[in-house]
Amino acid sequence: MNDMRSQFAKLGYGQASKPAGNRQGYGQNQGYNKNTAHTFVLTLNYDPVDAAEKVINHLEKDKYGNIALTTSQIRKFLTAVNVVRNKVDLYIAQNKYADELSIELAAEVKFLKVNLLYQAGRAKAVKDFMEISNLAAIIGDVDKNIKKFQRLCKYVEALVAYHKFMGGKDK
Predict the structure, then answer these.
(1) Among candidates 143, 14, 128, which has minimal Cα distance to 60?
(2) Contact 160, 78 (CB under 8 A)
(3) DSSP result, the chain
(4) Which residues fall within 8 angstroms of residue 45, CB to CB, at 6 or more apart?
(5) Is the dihedral of CA 139, 132, 150, 76 positive or negative?
(6) How confident is the model at residue 156, as a pLDDT?
(7) Per-residue confidence at 5, pLDDT binned at 50, 70, 90?
(8) Virtual CA dihedral for 108, 144, 154, 70, nearest 10 degrees?
(9) I need a surface site. Which of 2, 43, 72, 135 has the fewest CB within 10 A?
(10) Of the ranges 10-19, 57-66, 151-160, which one carries the lowest mean pLDDT score?
């Protein structure tokens, strides 16, 4: 249980297997390419844990080998997702047989994209993260689907966890 993937699997976030171990050496940018970044995460049928690992492995690094995206930047988005998640959980508890989000909740999920775009406009590292992770498209794909929203939440949690695991920090 020492590796992060098996801990995620235990919590139900994906399948357990050893990480690919593709972290490169000190100060190297691991093949970041905006043109192919979107292929890591498909808007349908993606594994949140595998996708998060690939995204974080391909984030741009500074000359010292640190991930350019700070913990504060990524956790700010996680906080926004968790606020909506709490509302969705309450809605599900009150409407046990609901298979879709209410119109109001679907609008709040869509507003997460606005939050992300605002943060991306403020910092290049967030913009690169947004493009690689394909979060804007995934949020747009959720619409009223509860399962897709829950997968989005797991994906964002996995992104934050892998960011921390791979050495992400504040500057």
Answers:
(1) 128
(2) yes
(3) --SHHHHHHHTTSS-----------TT------HHHHGGG--SSS--HHHHHHHHHHTS-B-TTS-BSS-HHHHHHHHHHHHHHHHHHHHHHHH-TT--B--HHHHHHHHHHHHHHHHHHHH-HHHHHHHHHHTHHHHHHHHTTBHHHHHHHHHHHHHHHHHHHHTT----
(4) none
(5) negative
(6) 95
(7) low
(8) -30
(9) 2
(10) 10-19
What residues contact residue 63 under an 8 Å CB cut-off, 6+ apart?
27
pLDDT-derived band at 28 (thresholds 50, 70, 90) equals: very low
Tokens matching residue 165: 């695991």
- Mean pLDDT across 40-68: 80
- Count of residues for the chain? 171
26's tokens:
């000190």
**pLDDT given at position 85:** 97
Sorted by sequence, the CB contacts under 8 Å of residue 92 that are 6+ apart come out as 98, 146
Domain boundaries in the chain? 67-171
